[in-house]
Structure formats: structure tokens, C-alpha cells
Amino acid sequence: MEAVRGGIKPGHLVVSGVFGGICAGAALFSIIMVPIPGIPGGSGFWIPAGLYFALTLWFGFWGALAGHIGTFIGMGPFFGFTFQVWADGALGDFFAPLINLAIFRATRADPELKTKRDMGIWLISVIISTCLAAMWIHFVNYSFGTITFDLWKWGVIAYTIGDTLAVWIIGTLLLRSATKYIKTFPYYVKGLFS
Amino acid sequence: MSQRSMFVHISKDSPLNLLHPLPKLALILTINTVALIIEAPIPFLMLIILVVFTFRIAKVPIIRIWRLIAALIIVSQAVIISYVFTSRIPGKIIYEFPWGTYVSDMTLLFSLSMIMRYSTMLLGSTLILCTTSDRDITYGIFSLKLPYSLAFIFTLAFRSTSIFIDDFAKVRDAMILRGTNFYKGSIVSRARSYARLLIPLIFIALRRVVEYTYAVEAKGFTVTGKRTYLHRYDVKPRDIVISILLASSVFLTFILKYWLGILSFPGWPLNMFLGR
Hints:
The structure holds 2 protein chains of 2 kinds.
Chain A: H1 10-33, H2 47-59, H3 61-79, H4 83-107, H5 116-143, H6 149-182
Helix pairs in contact in A: 1-2, 1-3, 2-3, 2-4, 2-6, 3-4, 4-5, 5-6
Chain B: E1 2-4, E2 9-11, H1 21-37, H2 41-57, H3 63-67, H4 69-86, E3 93-96, E4 102-104, H5 107-130, H6 134-143, H7 148-177, H8 187-218, H9 237-258, H10 270-274
Antiparallel strand pairs in B: 1-2, 3-4
Helix pairs in contact in B: 1-5, 1-6, 1-9, 2-5, 4-5, 6-7, 7-8
């Protein structure tokens, strides 16, 4: 394997591409199964959220990028590949797992979630990052005129609850069952990029 | 002869097919930015008519527009409910809600403008993607001087989506044969069943990552450094002229809204009738 500047390998790019496709497929299923009337590309149970939160803890920036690209590709066929869809869902889904990763790195928590401390950090960090993403996403929707400012706070609360549940259910299962194996994978990321 | 784009087969002699990917990406950005700046309903209507007319010129099947109707209906009802119940659009107040918001004579018109804003973006983006292949997007990203790694990731993600859907069906069928029931139980238990389905999918994907990495490295792919391209897209003078015109139109829209007020709500020509 050829190691290049900063330790980033072609495999890291492939991780983003392949898992981006998986997140896109999962987004399509989410929108079809549990749509939210009125929110462009929205779903009441965002399956890719659980996926890219776990991916970001395993593959750092490349996992978040997979979520970002996957969300945009997944939402596009239903609500258009518009600037709004990119700026709200896709960009929000890029920052949320990175915030979660930053909390994990700052507290030196282990994504295997073996101890109560790690589990507590995971549960709280998901709420914080999802809430921040919800604020951003609804701010974009407000800026594009899709919702009013009065509806903003209700949107933030609903989104935070829905997305947090999806991440807790799916993400926790993935982290507890697969992290031990993924730590042996050559493209497991210990920092942000490599 | 027809050519496969992201969504449909379109005629090879479509004028938009002749363009370099750069002005196509510029057109997507322009339509979205212009729609974001405008607030006035009549200019929006004119812009939508222009985009629909361009569908005809570009020889894109009009059936594509009909497929967007469901998305437009979903967004429209939400926008109208949002503005009727939770907005304070200045105008003659018709009804005031106990929680402090009100419906004025301008509420419906403003929400209509916002629906048209979304429609313009949706139609404009669809028009361009109907005349663009995923290879065009790759070269477009490269033309914008963005790293080709990004174009590579984007293309791989597009191709991986359909592979994932096939894998998903296979793994789900295998789990059903082993007794898993995805349709019984509470929402949470069903969600957990679907989450368990993701574990084998992730391991299949990890194996694929290793295989793809070997394949791209065998072809000499590196994260940085120079690379060659199989297809050549030459930027012609008309591509540059179109890109400059598109950039100018964003600037012009900005002036028309913020300096002359023509594109601010309610905008031309309604501001003359409403005396604003």
C-alpha cells in the first residue's frame, strides 16, 4: 500500500465512496418508509444517521464525508439536487458526526462502548451533535423560506428527537458489534484523516 | 442517437449536451442562487416559464417534470401550513391567532412565492442533471479546480448505491429465511431488526473497500499528484461566454433586488398596484 502525505491512502477515499453509496441507499429507504410531509427529503427515522455516526467514529472525516455525499445522493431523486437540499440535509449530516467525533476525541472515549462512561458520552454527544445539526438544518430551511421562524424551534425539537433515536438504536448496535473488528481494518482512523 | 444522462436518455444533439461540464455546473449554481435572491412572485413565474421552455429546447422529455409534482405538492402544503399558522407577513390582517401570529392579505402570496422559489430550484437542477452524466460531474468538479479525489469519491458513491440495494435485498432474504420478521413488533423492534441487517452489509462493504483499493492502486491511482484522463473536454469560447453571462445574471439579480427593489416582495409589477 502506498502511504502518501498525511498518511491518507487511496483506501480512505474508497471508504468514503463505498459507504457514501450505502448511506445513499439507506437514505432512499428511510424517505420511502417514514417520510415527513413538507421537509425536503426528510424522514422520521433517518437510518443513514445511525450509519454515518458510527462510520465517523471508525473512519473519521471519511465517514462524515460518506454521510454527506450519501445523504445528498439519497435525497436528490425525491426533492431535487438543489442548493437547499445540499445545504440543509447534506451539510448538516456532515457536521453532526464530526461534532460527535470531536467530543469522543476530547473525552478519549472508546467507540467500542464497553464502559458506562463511554456509553454515557456516546448518548450525550449524540444529543448535542444532533441538536446542533437540527438548528443548522432548520435555519437553512428558514433562510430558503420553506418554514417560518416560529416553526423553527418545533422543527429543531422534532428533528433532534427523531434523529437521536435513530442514532441510538442503529449506531449503538453497530458500534458495540463491529468496532472491535473494524479497529483491525487498515483504514481505521485514529485522528481526523488517518 | 441518444445519450444516457443521470436520469434519462436524451437526444445527442441536445444543445445542453454540447456544453462543457463547467457551464452546466455554473447553470445549476446560478439557478439556485438567483432563486434564493428573488422574492417577487411574478419574476418567479417568468423564471419558471423560462426553465420549462429550456426543457423543450434541450429536448429533455417533459415527463420528467410530472415526476416532480409529488415533491412539489409535499413541499407546497407544508409551506402554506407553516405560513398560515406561524407567520407575521405585513399587510391587512384578516385573522389573528391566539398565539400571536396572523394571516394577512399578503400571507398566501408570500407563501406562493416561496413555493415558486423551491419549484425553480427543483426544475432547474432537474433540467441540468437530465443533460449531464456522472462522468460530466466528475469532469465538472475537476474543472472547478477541486481535488480529483472528490470527483472520484462522488462517482464511486453513485455507482455503489445500486450495488448496496442488491446486497440489501440478498441479506434481507437470507435473514427472512432464518426466521427474522421485519414486519412484526413495535416500531423500535422493527428498527432494531433493520439495524441488525446493516451489520452484514457493513462487512460486505469493508471487503469491497479492500478489493476496490487494490484495483485503483493497481491502476496507479494516488491521493495527490498528477493524473491523466481518458476523455478530453475542451473549454470552448462559448463555454466561457456562457459562464460569464451566468455569473453576471447573479450580479444583476442582486442589483435588481437590493438596489432597485424590483425583485423584493411583492416586487414588479405588483408593487405598482399595491402602492409599495
